[in-house]
What does this fold into?
Amino acid sequence: MQTSSCALLKVADIEDVMALEAQCFRTRWTREQFLLGLERGAFRIYGIREGNREGSSLVAYVAFSLIAREMEIMNIATHPEHRRKGYAALLLAKALETCRQEQAQEGFLEVRCTNLGAIDLYKKFGFTQVGTRKNYYPDNKEDALLFKLDFPVAARSR
It folds into this structure.
């Protein structure tokens, strides 16, 4: 198998995103939500594909928004058969790099309180917990932990 690096996904990739979404989440976004966000430029999606000459499949993606210098990670998904390969970290790094280049000042995300792997990943990237959203997830009323990241102010030229 050959793995490509992070690539910006487009509307044409929605079916692949939806298929991966179904593999990863109990509560999923709809096709319409993804389309609205991409068509209006409300968010971006980076993905990683794995495959060979016959075709490739989307194995991981990150969806995030950057509005008024505030970034929000909306989803990070990795296909269950491709976890523990560093794809989520690669995608998160790419999203954060993009936000730094576009002068983001702060970033936010919510994560299920039981998703210890994701919580560990976010902490490694400098996110800190700033709150809890009680009964946030509709499927089981699980709490969400709210995390924040302050982007360092770029050094100014003299």
